[in-house]
Amino acid sequence: MPRLPIADIEIRAFAHATEDLNKVIEAVQQILPKEHLDEINFKKRKLKGHYGNPIQLIEARIKKKEILSKILEKIAKKLNEVDKEILSREIDRHIDKGSLYLRLDKQAALQNEIKIKSADPIHIRFRFRKERREEIYKICKELGLVH
Questions:
Q1: Residue 94, domain extent
Q2: Full pLDDT tens readout for the chain, 147 residues
Q3: Burial of 121 by CB count in 10 Å (0-12 exposed, 13-18 middle, 19+ buried)?
Q4: Phi, psi of 80 (to 5 degrees)
Q5: What CATH number does the domain containing 43 carry?
Q6: Does a structural domain hold residue 1?
Q7: In sequence order, what E strands does the chain have?
Q8: CA spacing 20 to 30 A to 126: which of 13, 49, 75, 88?
Q9: Does residue 72 form part of some domain?
């Protein structure tokens, strides 16, 4: 396997008191390759919201090349053309210090769809081996994440 341009992927999602934790975990799992779910270790932390309301943080860091590659393929394949176009135009807002940040719709993920959404999302950070924005954009284009 050629050297993957991504070092790791971090995934985070918050389950608010009004949400079913299992549904949030299911939404996150929908964006991941099913054949590797048992290899991805999710950590859960209990937090308190601004008004003291309970929140659970679900997070995982994935470093295994085969899994990284499959996550990228799945997101690139399932992300709709409108979101790819928006991401292409706004790429500078999504890249910082060698990482690409995406926010995906939790509700759409439950329906096995991948859509960009900024409110109450699933957070994904792709940490690239390259630092420059132009290089990251080129890689994203080659992977089919942007136009």
A1: 6-143
A2: 467 899 999 999 999 999 999 999 999 999 999 999 999 999 999 999 888 999 999 999 999 999 999 999 999 999 999 999 999 999 999 999 999 999 999 999 999 999 999 999 999 999 999 889 999 999 999 999 998
A3: buried
A4: -70, 160
A5: 3.30.1440.10
A6: no
A7: 6-16, 43-48, 54-62, 95-96, 99-105, 121-128
A8: 49
A9: yes
